[in-house]
Amino acid sequence: MKKLEIKELSDNFFESIGKEWMLVTAGTKEKFNTMTASWGGIGWLWNKPVAFVFIRPERYTYEFIEKNESLTLSFLGEENKKIHAICGSKSGRNIDKVEETGLKPVFTEQGNILFEQSRLTLECKKLYADGIKPECFLDKESLEKWYGGVHGGFHKIYIVEIKNIYSR
Question: Which InterPro entries does its entry note (predicted)?
Fold first, then answer.
């Protein structure tokens, strides 16, 4: 993996996040978890390059994000949709996702986790987190569509500073 500067980042993140998806990974070399996500974005906030992701508290990865100051966002490419399918539908509480998917973890100098299969990984530091609140919805249709019924609890949004970018 080679390091890129923020100005070298040329992905269309509407496609990368919304269509290709990403793995959100947090933890330590000894114990970590990863999950598939397709909600988030990339931008500029507080004079820093940032990403934002949404994680439901029911997800096992949520525990790892809460306990650690950093996380990674890894983009595996369309050719790895099977990995995303497993990481998005099975819990790390019940299976070893690395073993199940063939993911090959690589650890950064800071001890964060990316994967050999990643075409692009953003190594990020948490800056801000807050829960989505039902009373703050201006569009009640989205509230009903995404939080009514069987979907689960309200997401927590994490705004994270992009500290390092790795590309293969």
Answer: Flavin_Rdtase-like_dom, Flavoredoxin, Split_barrel_FMN-bd
Distance CA 139, CA 154 (A): 15
Q: What confidence score (pLDDT) does residue 22 get?
A: 97
26, 61 Cβ separation under 8 angstroms: yes
The residues, ordered by sequence, that sit 6+ positions from 7 with a Cβ below 8 Å of its Cβ are: none
Is the pTM here over 0.70, yes or no? yes
Distance CA 133, CA 129 (A): 13
User: What is the pLDDT at residue 150?
Assistant: 65
Query: Which residue has tokens 């992905």?
Result: 11
Domain boundaries, the chain: 2-167
CATH superfamily of 2-167: Electron Transport, Fmn-binding Protein; Chain A (2.30.110.10)
Q: Judge whether residue 152 has pLDDT over 90.
A: no
b/e for 69-102, b at 16 or more Cβ within 10 A?
A: ebbbbbbbeeebeebbebbbebebeeeebbeebe
